[in-house]
Amino acid sequence: MRLVMLFVGAVVVLLMAGCGGSEEGPQPFKVGVASVKITPEKEGLYLGGWGENRRYTKIHDDIYARAIVFERGDTKVAWVALDLVGLMEPDVEDIRARVKDLPPANIVIACSHVHSAPDTIGLWGPDEATCGVDPEYLEFVKARTADAIKQALQATHVARVRLAQAKAPARCAINHQDAATIDSTISILQAVNPADEPVATVVNWACHPECLDKHNLEITSDYVHWLRQVVEADTGAPCIFFNGALGGMVSPDIEEHTFAEAERVGTTVGQVVVEALKEAEGPLRPDLAFRSEKVTVPVANETLRQAAKVGLIAAYRGQAMKEVQADIAVMWLGPSVWMTMPGEPLPAVGLEAKDLVTADYEFLVSLANSELGYILPKAFWEREQYKYEMSMSIGPDTADLCLSVLRSLLNGAPEWATAKKSAGTAASKEKPGTEKKPVAEAEAPAVSAPENPVTSVGAVPAGKQAAPLPQPEPTTPATPGANTEPVSGE
After folding, report:
1. What pLDDT score does 418 carry?
2. Using an 8 Å Cβ cutoff, are 484 and 331 in contact?
3. Do β-strands 160-167 and 58-59 pair in parallel, antiparallel, or remain unpaired?
4. What is the pLDDT at residue 25?
């Protein structure tokens, strides 16, 4: 009888360890979060996007580097969201090199592509022949971004996640080139501490942050500011935004380029996120795995090659730039799959990437680890309507090469991960109440691209406090390079 009681007691302890929030369980799942301002302290910097010679005159709202770290067992990954127009791969590698406690490949750095933040590419200086990057500000961004990652690494503690998915409502985003093809899915992850208090909310949605146009000279994160503000006011925890398949040309569906319209779009999407979280799945202690691989893309765009050679693209100043590289990554986190693209994929490319997997929740993070401009399906290079997008793209092979790397990475999925599809064979899995491949509202007409289209290459509120995360003991970093060893399930 004593042996039987001991056995029953051991089973109860194991079950409690698997379901509770204690670190006593095997390979606890941890999350760390940090937010660091990258608002310029230097006056008169050139703004990236829209056109040349836009010097900022005032600050409307602060811009940030926001980092979230996921950890379980030997797998540890940092995802960073920057309120910037973009960063090229050499600058990403510079930031990664400053973080000694994490393999470089396990750091994903993505930009929102906002058009009202300082130029960090170089294409938007005082004129078409002068680089717009301020070296002091770029160094400031790199140092602050590295600090955000380090702070998040130090803040990791036991957590759980909730996952949700929703559809952006009408009059939020529109594909100016093809109104019927757009990914309006909003993918949401919320991390909570053992007391079930929110620690952070991650939002992934596709839309250019360009409610403000070329006439705006104020620093702002555009609609992202209000989206985060709404979510943070409800949850009391930081909100981190990653953009999706925003290319060619997914823009806010607005009446005019004003702060009022930016507030409307951001507030509307933020409210959808808050409502979706009420029906979120979880809290879960998810399994975690991560893989990454470099893609090498030949630069067929002679104009961009010349721009680099004469120093207009700061990261490649003086170089022939015959080819460029960037890391593409895939992360499996419980029933969700996260994929990256090193530029601005058109919705057709983004939806094809999502169609490579069957998962309950799919995150596609664009402008990640580099900014290769528009990523078009190769067939679109025969279409006159995409002439502008082609002029701001590395070349016609970019989409195929990126998708090929994604397929390779997905083929290495851990056994516990959501079953992936063989290319073009299995049907997509849909979550009840949502569309796997959402499209624009029926009444949204196709409209022509805006005049002077977007150039594409080169706080928690007062009264609420984020849930506390005790400081952990230092842990051994994951093995450098692609992480292919998933953490065993419970």
Report:
1. 53
2. no
3. unpaired
4. 62
Dihedral pair phi/psi, residue 479, rounded to 5°: -65, 135
Q: CB 488: neighbour CB atoms within 10 A?
A: 13
User: Is the Cβ–Cβ distance between 299 and 322 less than 8 Å?
Assistant: yes
- For 398-415, the DSSP string reads HHHHHHHHHHHHHTT--T
How far from chain centre, in Å, is Cα 470? 26
Measured in degrees and rounded to the nearest 5, phi and psi for residue 386 equal -105, 25
CB atoms within 10 A of CB 465: 11
d(CA 258, CA 261): 5
Domain ranges of the chain: 28-410
Q: Could you say which DSSP state residue 214 is in?
A: T
Find the helix packing angle between 223-235 and 259-277, rounded to 10°.
40
284 contacts: CB under 8 Å, gap ≥ 6: 160, 161, 162, 163, 334, 335
Q: Locate tokens 């049907």: which residue?
A: 427
**Which segments in the chain show pLDDT lower than 70?**
1-25, 418-490
Residue 376 burial (10 A CB sphere; 0-12, 13-18, 19+): buried
Global pTM? 0.84
